[in-house]
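Case study 2.
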Amino acid sequence: MHHLRRPEGRIAYDLYGNDTDGTLVICVPGMFDHRASFRLVGRELAAAGHRVAVMDLRGHGDSDTTFTSYDSRSTSTDVLALAEELGAERVVMAGNSMGAAAVTIAALERPDLVSGIALLGPFLRPSPPGPVARTLYRTLLMRPWAARALTFVYDRLHAGRTPEGHEEQKERIRRMTRTADRRRAITKTLQAPNETIDRAEDLAAEAVVIMGELDPDWKDPRSEAEWVASVVDGRAVMVPECGHYAQSQRPDVVSSVLLDLVERVNADA
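Prediction:
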């Protein structure tokens, strides 16, 4: 594990294939997830000769809980800082859920740096939580049931295939909710006023959208994937036997798509 120092705290990240000189791929999970959800993809891309950095969100995993802001735009600054810390001149980014919004913002802000983005189960138009939802979030993350409740929700979002090492990953999620400071950080992330990204005409990065056919976050996952693809002028890949976490449920598909994306952006360089 490594740490990226930021003005208000540190961001935890893992490196795969750091002894290679291939393309840098930065992976960003979504809220109440742990960076290890990209563990299988990281290993696969490293085996193919690329460098992979997989980070935690602010207040999640092993990142610090000392930040003021926990929204997707703030996360985008962490992603860009990590790319610069690792000395990348051009980088491909993969983001899941809220992380997809963060890498999209990063690509819009730094077209000179971000050459490709993969958006997994992307939330580009989040619905602001109403009073009932806000109360539910607070209740969900209260002791003594916070760890059990959040892990139950996390498990249910894995509709379809059960990932390799899923029990170990759920234990990481349980550990993440056992301290008051992390519960507060996760609550702030859930309640953050994230912006809607429905226009991206200035996006220069090659884009691909990866959506689980069984993703329970949408009534019609294919329709949402096609809408996001239209915003980022990319293509949509629907993944069978998969819910919200394609990177862990179908790492075979995600790795293949990412390797293709890397090949495309390098061909255009």
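The first helix runs from residue 39 to 47.
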